[in-house]
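Weekly sync notes, structure subgroup
Attendees: PM, AL, DS (notes)

Item 1: joint prediction request from the bench team. They want all two components modeled as one assembly rather than separately. Inputs as received:
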Amino acid sequence: MNRNKIYPRYFAFGALIIYSVFFFLPGLIGVGYSFTDWSAYSDELHYVGFQNFTTVFSADENYMKIITNTLEFTLITTVLKNVIGLILALLLTRSIRLLNMHRGIVFMPSVLSTLIIGMIFKSILDPKAGLLNSFLRSVGLQIFANKWLVSSELAFGSVMAVDIWRGVGYIMTILIAGILSISPDYYEAAAIDGAGGWNKFRYITFPLILPTLATTTVLNVIYGLKVFDMVYALTNGGPGKATTEVLYTAVFKKFGTGQYAVGTALSSVMFVIMIFVGIFMIRVMTKNEVVE
Amino acid sequence: MKRKILVSILSLSMVMAMLAGCGKGGSTGEAPSGSTTEKAAPAGEASSGDDVTITFMASQDWIQDAEMELGEKFTEETGIKIDYQIVPSDQYESLLMTKINSGECTDIFGGQSSQFSIVTQFDVEKNAVDLSGESWAGNVDPAAAVELSAGGKLYGQPIQDVSACWAVAYNISLFDKLGLKIPTNYAEFTDVCEKIKAEGIIPIYECVSDGWHHVCWTEAAIAATQADPSYPDKLNNNEDTFAGNKELIKMFSQLKEMADKGYFGDNYMSNEYADAPASIASGEYAMVLYNQGLGAEVNAADSGFPEDNIGYFVNPLCDNQALNVNYCGPSRFIFSGSKNIDAAKKYLEFMASDESLAYMTENVGKFNQLPYSNAPSAYSAVVQDFYDRYPEKVAVFQASVKYYNPAWMDIGADMSAMFLGEMSPEELLKDIDKLRAEQAAAASDPGWK
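Output from the run, pasted for the record:
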């Protein structure tokens, strides 16, 4: 190991100071506030212990459902975005006509504003006059015409479906880059050995894009835990009490009603969940990594 | 070594530059919260009208086209531009409160008036500008002014006609054709709905997706006030609860029954308030809970539908036969942290002028009598007949009960949960008590200690 090639520690000081002052410290202060009765209605601040956390985990409240919704959203969208993204990436790395146009079409939703997508899909999924139900009725499939965003059974699934549609192109693009970085020599050697398409995928493509898949998983998990705008635009947490409510929409509403302390307690719970998820993912991702 | 020193100096200067940059931002940010003279400086600039744009945020349907037309005239006269920011109603309250609480609100913001919630929710004494000394302040209807005042000072300016109330608007010719009479209790109302439904017409246009409209049915809670006139006071002193009140259980049970019997049709969860006039004009629906301007709006949606073909009767839940009056309504407030206070005051003065009030009354169908002494009256015969039919007037909970109005959207979410079968009326009432207790606790209300 050449010691001269390692940068000195003080190179990191600037970034560390900025990170500490603008990210770490406010986060810590936020956790501190979750132990108080901080609200918009009073200038006084009192220590209340774990009262806000008791509220968050109380059986009378919806917060546990909100936390479960967030985790469910994260898990399902992460898995489906990766699977669908991978299938699309495999299809769009073959020699087909108008390849870039196809890639562009799939990628396009990712560059659109989530709020605009939300508003468009609110109209598309309207049970009475929406494009989807109108189409289903016109082809005689009215049995499948549903109340996509306003029934308690389908609303959460619909929100996740729209989010997957929006995010899958982005994941596909990253995976295409991963697939294209695999040397064609492997495939040629495998072909000589008589390997078919499935075996090539199983023994060459999949193992070699695992690090890329790990990256897309991290991106999806972080996005899923922090999701706000898609839910806000499509259902605002409804229909009903908390059918599609996720942590950030709940925090937003608590801040909106001036109940800052409960809002920060919810954020703190989120913070702890993210730490655990983060540690777990770093461990999994660095398991096979070799340090030079 | 030299390299180390150079790197250290560069790193240090970078950090210093960053902190200096932040420092500059902080000093400008502090200026508005300084002394009044510091605040007056930018406002003075604003009054000249040079490149001043005031921002005005309000919920959907609070800023009418007529107001924006007047806004253009105001810009022509003063040079002050207005940036209207209209927010979907289901998202407005959260957004407004977040902006107010973070100190980053627009110059003018729209908010529901109520002598209780303007203090507990908006904290107007801190977040809004005192408008008592404005030239138009004395013209505001005294009953409306009470709902906009705190500590003897006026903080808001009414936007809409508060004489109007949420009543059942119906298609008169359809009622005549089917031989239907105005119902005088809930049983008669369900008979009317059944007869309309039998004709293949959806009895009531309801729109839950906006998050607020279906809560207007709860104005029938005046039945609880009629049963016990001291009930609102008991609620305000935390001596009684919503849970267990017989009239309120009846009200929510009847609402749920209306939804279950199909009186709202299949799409009430996704219907939107803005489509109500067109839906009535199309003949697909027969009735809608609306204020007394629906006739003009239906006529605007379909000129073949006469304006006076819309009649009104009171919300019949709990067999109510009293007029549910509410002198509260959407109002304009000037944000105390605004840099354009003088310009915003000029806009409010312009909107309260004789000409502007006359223009608004003439051009907005639902504005019959704006709450100003200098506003003209435009009640039609149909509307006058409606008001004359119900001599008894009772103040709605929105105006008479503390922490009810701030919980409006949450109650709306609970009600949609009730329609979906996730909550019973009794559970809903318990949740209203909980929502009010949360607000009261946050406001350190002595009644809840």
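Discussion: DSSP finds 20 helices and 13 strands in chain B.
Action: AL to compare against the crosslinking data before next sync.
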